[in-house]
Design brief:
Elements lengths: L2 H24 L6 E11 L3 H21 L2 H13 L3 H12 L3 H34 L1 H10 L3 H11 L3 H22 L20 H20 L6 H15 L1 H13 L5 H16 L7 H17 L2 H6 L3 H4 L14 E4 L12 H11 L1 E8 L2 E9 L2 H8 L3 E8 L9 E9 H4 L3 H7 L9 E6 L7 E3 L7 H30 L3 H40 L3 E5 L10 H9 L4 H15 L4 E5 L24 E3 L6 E3 H11 L3 E2 L11
Parallel strand pairs: 7-9, 9-10
Antiparallel strand pairs: 1-4, 1-6, 2-5, 3-4, 5-6, 7-8, 10-13, 11-12
């Protein structure tokens, strides 16, 4: 054999081995398993059998719900604190409660999950209270309003959670604290000054004026210690100075607000701030934060005498309510834990069912009832799930729930467990590849926008695929036309006291909202595969996105809707990078850039793009006069800017 051929074979083998090594580093180790839930098809003989099976499942759900009494829940919480293992928890609880494990296993499985969430929330609530005790202004805000924007932002960044979660934690813990203090410290509640959204300590105009002076002096002193003020800090200081200039107008209104009862302190003060801005002659100024700080400084001395001691003495278990305290909408599904003798029968244990489904594509569930004939129905697995089973995944658990009118169709879900490689599929990625232009690019900039034609725009012209555009169009149709018409009809029926008509429209509204959320979920599922296909086609090494911290809290109308529908979840882009890295054989980097002014600076001439109402997508440049697509321009700026790398996990999530 010639020497050059031997050398070529040797080099090819080295390349193959190197590629295999790269793929092994990209793929997670086989020891790390994931679980995924999928809906499967329950085939019954006819409609009457389906309705009878549905009725039997509903009876089991009601029996399951009746087991979750307050006494059982309290016992379960105490037991959970001594042992965290689910198997021990369930067996021990069955013995203590005296219930056989026939249906209790499923009920106590849900209870275990709920208590686990309660304990986690207790830890979060304790951390929140510790933060408030160290920041006294925020503590007074929480006492008066049940909210604290600085606390919300700080804890959201620290815990890496959505701000909405922190808002709910603050408001719920404030109401629970209110209830506890009302029972334990009745003497302190004689003036009602500690109750949320009732009366505040009585204050005079002199006290409010002194609080305004103190707040202005405090902020000037704090900001003087900083080397440079941000735009937000400068704007906040100007608001306080404006209120000081207009103190003859501001002080009487604020004093009256403090001394009057309010249904909601937060909403009423926001309305007062808007009224003050109009009276002063500055209707566009947002004075809410400055007015709120004046209220905090006014009430500071009144509350600091007793509130910190009360907060320190709070038992955190009383701040977070017990699970299942409120009636849940709907019923909990029946969990068919494998290896248990359940009221819904299966044809073997988990491994036997896995082998059976791999062989014939379906299995059988039995629904017995005392005094009646046992009904059976086939559970058929779609081809995608059969592929996962053949790749090495196995059945972990079944979940059965009853259906509602008019079809009364029961729902069966299966949870599969396996390694990441079992669930990896490149079918969608390859389907999108043929729709993408083939010019190569080492860096890909992505501009993220509201749901629609421009929800993701690249620094090179790449159109969105038809299926994503169709989903976005349907979502827009439901939001702008269908929901508006249904809401108007619902209000009309309410005014006419038409109970039947309003109930019918309310049900239709719920169905449309559910349909709309499913569209969003489908877009979130498809988008990573399309992004991965773009990366593969362009053979990119770096993908850059904006470091978005957009929050719909405090916004209204179209802006809030745009923020809620933006595909800005980091999971989408992490998954896209992971899929593309597997396909390309090398690691693609994900970087974030500063989002400021990417849409308003023209990349060609450096001019400014003036975006006005109705001109968000295309805007004129004030320097060259050209009409510019602001999204495409932003993507080009993002690709050009220096980014910060993300340290990616082997796979973004163990659940999705």
């Amino acid at each position: 054999m010639p020497l050059n051929i031997i050398l070529w074979i040797y080099l090819a083998s080295k390349v193959v081995s190197q590629t295999a090594t790269n793929l092994q580093t990209l793929l997670p180790s086989t020891s790390t398993g994931v679980m995924r839930s999928y809906q499967v098809v329950l085939k019954c003989a006819d409609q009457s059998q389906r309705e009878e099976i549905n009725q039997r499942i509903r009876t089991l759900e009601e029996r399951q719900h009746q087991l979750l009494t307050p006494q059982v829940i309290k016992q379960a919480v105490e037991l959970f604190r001594t042992n965290l293992k689910e198997g021990f928890f369930t067996r021990k609880l069955c013995k203590e409660v005296g219930k056989n494990p026939n249906i209790a296993e499923s009920a106590f499985h849900w209870l275990y999950i709920a208590i686990k969430g309660k304990i986690d929330k207790e830890q979060k609530a304790q951390g929140m209270l510790n933060f408030l005790l160290k920041n006294h202004q925020q503590l007074i805000e929480w006492i008066v309003f049940g909210r604290s924007p600085y606390t919300e932002r700080s804890l959201a960044r620290y815990w890496k959670l959505k701000r909405r979660y922190i808002i709910n934690l603050l408001t719920s813990s404030r109401s629970q604290t209110d209830s506890y203090w009302r029972k334990k410290h009745n003497a302190l509640y004689s003036s009602e000054s500690l109750q949320l959204n009732t009366l505040l300590p009585h204050c005079s105009q002199t006290e409010v004026l002194q609080a305004l002076d103190d707040a202005l002096f405090y902020q000037q002193h704090e900001f003087s210690l900083l080397p440079q003020l941000t735009k937000n800090q400068q704007a906040f200081l100007k608001k306080l100075q404006l209120l000081k200039q207009e103190q003859n107008v501001v002080i009487p209104f604020l004093t009256s607000w403090i001394n009057s009862p309010q249904d909601s302190r937060w909403k009423s003060l926001k309305e007062l701030a808007e009224q003050l801005a109009t009276i002063i002659g500055k209707p566009n100024r947002k004075l809410f934060s400055a007015v709120r700080q004046i209220v905090v400084f006014t009430l500071f001395d009144h509350y600091m005498q007793s509130v910190p001691q009360l907060v320190q003495g709070l038992p955190i278990a009383n701040v977070v309510p017990l699970p299942f305290k409120r009636k849940k909408k709907g019923r909990l599904p029946i969990k068919l834990l494998m290896g248990k003798n359940y009221v819904i029968t299966r044809q073997g244990i988990a491994q036997e069912l896995t082998d059976q489904v791999k062989k014939q594509g379906w299995t059988e569930l039995g629904f017995p009832q005392q005094g009646k004939k046992k009904l059976t129905a086939q559970v058929h697995f779609p081809p995608k799930l059969l592929e996962y089973l053949n790749n090495g995944a196995h059945i972990k658990i079944f979940q059965v729930s009853s259906g509602h009118a008019p079809c009364y169709k029961p729902r069966v879900d299966v949870v599969l467990e396996g390694t990441h490689s079992c669930f990896h599929s490149s079918i969608l990625l390859h389907r999108y590849l043929s729709q993408i232009p083939g010019k190569k690019s080492s860096v890909l900039g992505v501009d993220i926008n509201r749901l629609g034609q421009y929800m993701v725009v690249f620094n090179s012209a790449i159109p969105l695929p038809p299926d994503l555009l169709a989903l976005a169009s349907h979502y827009d149709h439901l939001s702008k036309k269908v929901l508006d018409e249904l809401n108007l009809g619902f209000l009309r029926k309410r005014r006419e006291y038409d109970v039947h008509g309003s109930c019918k429209l309310k049900g239709e509204l719920n169905r449309v909202y559910t349909h709309r959320s499913r569209i969003l979920r489908e877009i979130t599922r498809l988008l990573p595969h399309f992004l991965a296909a773009v990366i593969v086609k362009k053979q990119c090494k770096v993908i850059k996105i904006e470091r978005l911290t957009a929050d719909a809290t405090g916004t209204k109308g179209a802006l809030a809707k745009a923020i809620y529908t933006m595909p800005d979840s980091l999971f989408i882009y992490k998954k896209a990078v992971w899929l593309a890295s597997l396909e390309l054989g090398y690691k693609v980097k994900l970087e974030t850039v500063n989002p400021y002014y990417t849409s308003t600076i023209h990349i060609k001439c450096g001019g400014s793009l003036t975006r006005q109402k109705g001109q968000y997508d295309v805007a004129p440049c004030n320097k060259c006069g050209q009409q510019v697509n602001t999204h495409f321009n932003a993507a080009q700026n993002i690709a050009f800017l220096k980014g910060t790398s993300f340290l990616l996990n082997p796979f973004p999530s163990s659940h999705v």
